[in-house]
Structure prediction request, 302 residues.
Amino acid sequence: MTQADKVVVILGPTAVGKSSVAIELALRMNGEIISADSRAFFRGLNIVTDKPPLKVRRGIIHHLIDVVPLTGKYDAMAFRNDVERLVPEIQSREHLPIVVGGGTLYLGAILRGIFTGPSGDPKIREELLSEPLDQLYARLRKVDPEAAVRIHANDRLRIVRALEVHTITGQPISKLQKEAEPLSLDLAVFGLRMERQAHRRAIAKRAREMLANGLIDEVRSLHANGLRKEHQAHRTIGIPETEAFLDGEISHKELEERLIVNTWGLARRQMAWFKRDSAVTWIDVTGRSPLEAAEDILCVLG
Prediction:
């Protein structure tokens, strides 16, 4: 493949400034951005996902932002198919495709491949969904400890799917997933990371900005537009925490603290996932501007 066939991927944990770096790179490389943010796909989740507003995008074309209804669904296979469709379209315009985000499930679909698995069994799934979450997770740790490490103990849907696959096939989903194939693209993968304390400060700053910019009103609006706990978009850090505040369960200060703690937990899980990929070129962005980080990427790309 030639340089014209290259696809840049910029990944990293939340709050390290991936979007800003991608925009700087796109400005210099005639690029178009494909979002791999697991919640930016959904319409209405603006403040809670720190979605770059139009004025910040600086004229750069962004794909896969606001493409799914608030109460709709979007999965890793749909993302993989969209990337497979968008990349040649972008390249036909002689632009550089830049995939940007921290959604490990979605990035995994193109970097490591995706396991579609057997069709769901309604009876098995109904039985699993009726069991307490802690019991389901304990069972997952027993039958598939590798998957249990990757799946958060509160992620009921992924836990149920893993157990469903094991029940149907008799094999751990982690084993079957290894047989998946990555997307056939000439990928240049860059990871952004930040010194631990600086990263925690960035996360705390984002949490305060979300609250100052109207997070509470946005969650009220999401409810008014039909968002409920059973919807995929509801599983977004910032929504359950704000609901607890609105229900009078926690104070405003406790809301801020929960946002910081839960976001930091997400960042740690993301980094654990990214570190398993040896193909990533890491760039430390501590104390550096988005332009400086973009210039580092440009140097590697040549």
Notes: The two ends are 15 Å apart (CA to CA).
